[in-house]
Amino acid sequence: MAENEYVPLFETRQVKGRILFRCIAASILLGICLIVMYRIRYFSIGGKAERWTWIGLFLSELWFSFYWLLTTVCRGNAVIRIPFIHRLSQRFGKELPGIDIFVCTADPLLEPPSMVVNTVLSMMAYDYPPEKLSVYLSDDGGSNLTFYAMLEAANFSKTWLPFCKKFKVEPMSPEAYFRTASEPLNVEEWPSVKRLYEEMKMRIETTTKLNQIPQHVYKQHKGFREWNFVTSKHDHQTILQILIDGRDTNAVDIEGNPLPTLVYLAREKRPQYHHHFKAGAMNALIRISSRISNAPIILNVDCDMYSNNSESIKYSLCIFMDEEKGDEFGYVQFPQSFDNLTKNDIYGCSFRVIQKLEVKGLDANGGPCFIGTGCFHRREALCGKKYEKNFRFDLKKLNNTKVNERASLLEEICKVLASCTFEHNTTWGKEMGLIYGFPVEDIVTGLSVQCRGWKSVFLDPERDGFFGVAPITLLQLLVQHKRWTEGHLQVFLSKYCPLLYGYKKIPLKLRLAYCAYNLWAANCLATLYYVVVPCLCLLKGIKLFPKISSPWVLPFAYVAFSHHAYSLGEFLWCGGTFLGWCNDQRMWLFKRTTSYLFASLETILKLLGYSQLAFVITTKVADEDVSKRYDQEMIEFGVASPMFNILATLAILNLLGSFGTMKKVTMHADKGFKVLDQFGLQILLCLVLVTMNLPVYQALFFRMDKGKMPSSVTYKSIIFALLACTLSVY
Question: Where is the active site (predicted)?
Fold first, then answer.
């Protein structure tokens, strides 16, 4: 194609509202400067307690200001990418590259096989030439139940894939499709396909419940014999089965069309070898797939993240195959979306503003981070290759690898690639594949790819590319964020610290933006101080803020109001609701005072050698009562946890502080206005915290369902709060 005939496959546009954001950010920065001036000018010269509480509050405000700058630095020039898939089809036709799709699961109890099957089927059903699709499932649970479910999926795909293509089905997950779509008129296949799916689902769920493979099924496939040699899920040989061989002319659906390749892998595990969790599973899949299909593009998804957009592959190829800029990009990241969110997103799981605005700011400064799922990778970039400016990648030629071995022979040849000892004395986990040693292997891997010269892109099409399952209990959410926060902090304290590792490799703005995530944990101390100390000082009569009648109250009021008002505006603009924003602010408080605190403590223990790296899997199942309360937007407590002890104690503490102040105002009418003038902002802060904790009070004192706060937590929190109030007075 001549240079003057070049037409881009994607377009980059600036996000609207940049000037407004910069003006408001500048005004907030001015307000922060005035607050700093106030703290310095009116430094407390009273007693020792007054001085130290003033210093602590000042340091907390300095930290909040610094962290606000980190989160703001990339927001001013956010961009959106618009792919043109019609141009892709016109330009390349059928000369499209192969795609290898990796699905990872680890526990059949927490991640039910029926859910895994839906994800796998949705990946096989993309609007893409099936002979160029290969789907790989990594089963780190080494479960014959998951293997059985994959056999059922392979059989049902012969009916499901032609049904999807014929009627342009979206989403491509059978469960999601039949749950959300109404039966169309004049579609004879609908009832029969739905019946076949429900029968398959029932067989899988019955087998999972009984924890036993039916004898007649066990004899039908040679793969089940592998489990005769399995000691446990932590001690077994490599199990590799090519369930559908896309090269086989007999591998066709009910209409005679070819099927995608489907591969099951349970990599070798031995107690004496570290398996490196999801990162190790992904690296094993990279090696196995390089021998079987060797597609130049890899898509990885979690087992609960089904495909919701049949064009997602083509969207990503518009980035990779653009003749002018495509060679620069190492990966294309899609948003992480969820299909089980309530109307007002009770647990603030949508990442609405982060994905609609913050990540798009990263995209303008070198690219978004890799978030572990819904990401298309260039195989060379993921395998450690450095970007070379003048080197051109021909994705079509890279996919011309032909494999001639029979499937059974290929299975035996590839098993060594997933053995425990294969990576010894190699750069796997260090320079090749996903990086080992962190709970957030995705973040550090994306950073290392960018530091090798590659850029990345964030694609947010109008129809969500993928849907997953969000936590439906508060403890699930807090534990999940504890793991993420712990991993981010470990990255910051390691050689992969973005400020140092990315020096002269990626833009300064991008390094600072990474730090905003890496330093989540550091927010816990400042937040705890702001939640606890003003309340206790209110009881003791220590003033920490300017009087309501003083002009110095204006910068405090302006910063608080403008920041939250703009935050609300952004949330509504991104499709949220007012109650959704309130829930988001509440979860922000809960995570900072629990998840971030425990993540910090765990990281310190790990650095001292008292704790080992662990990977906590978030359960994807819940009983009917929990699901019902979730749909009613009732926060689920239900179990005793140290995190709930902290939340309940802080809530009661601020409630007692508010009651104590109200008592002073009402019982001493002559001094009431003076108290309000002196302590107005502290009282307002306490009341805001009390309002945010209303669901906690309901769970402590009023709810009678199983999701209420356990009695042990209630008693402990009351004792702790009363003890703190008593000690503060003396």
Answer: 140, 442
